[in-house]
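Before relying on records like the one below, remember that each one covers exactly one chain. Contacts with other chains, cofactors or solvent are not represented anywhere in the record.
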Amino acid sequence: MQPSRLGRNLNRHMHKQRLLTAAILVCACTVAPSLARGLSDPAAPSTSASAAVLPDAPQPQTQTQAPPGASTAAKTEATPTPSNEGKQQTKRILFIVPNFRSVSANQKLPPQTAKEKFKTAALESFDYSAIIFAAGQAGVAQALDSYPEFQQGAAGYGRYFWHTFADETDENLWVQGILPVALHQDSRYYTLGHGGIIKREAYAFTRVLVTRNNDSRRAPNYSEIVGAGVASSISAAYYPSVYQTWTKIGQRWLTNVIIDGAVFSMNEFWPDVNNKFFHQKD
């Protein structure tokens, strides 16, 4: 009996040992892969665990919460930046001088249509302020005796006036209407609105040489240079023959371009002056 009992006890002991060994192997096979992944990528277990528990868990609030003013971010493309806030272009300068072509700094506008270009040319030609400007320019020309053939007195002033008014209308038609439509150029003035005085002055005056196409790309301002030249050439038809020389045509051409450059300079700084002194609103 003793040998048989000893055999049974030995068998039970070996059976328990096998079960324990099997359990250890099962545990090792189960834990080892996870342990290996944990050693190679410490952050993986927590990430996978959180993903398994909360597959659709929302992101932390700091990532989804929009910063103040973000809801209006899309509008900044059509409005000036905060640094230019309040420095807007107005339709007129001091309620008199036309400012129809000026665009506020950083303002985005759709391309000009042909109708808009001709409308702007007509407004700047036949606006009441255009008559005032022509009258003033005619008075200066008469005082300087720029065209002696026109003579002095009221009759002479009348000659100076209608020639000046015709010159302005002719140039506006070519520079702001006909050539911008034909060449697909933008006749508006886009305000720079930042930088020092010299930088902005240089930018403004050189807009007679550089402009934008309808696709907003920069291009030589053929509308201004060629348009002013064509208008000066046409003007020779209604000036006395003594003033129909290439020299006089060139002088009128240069005068037109310089005046336009001076107007652009005035347009560039008008929002700053208005914001500081006048506070004019449209």
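Confidence is low (pLDDT under 50) at residues 19-64, 66-82.
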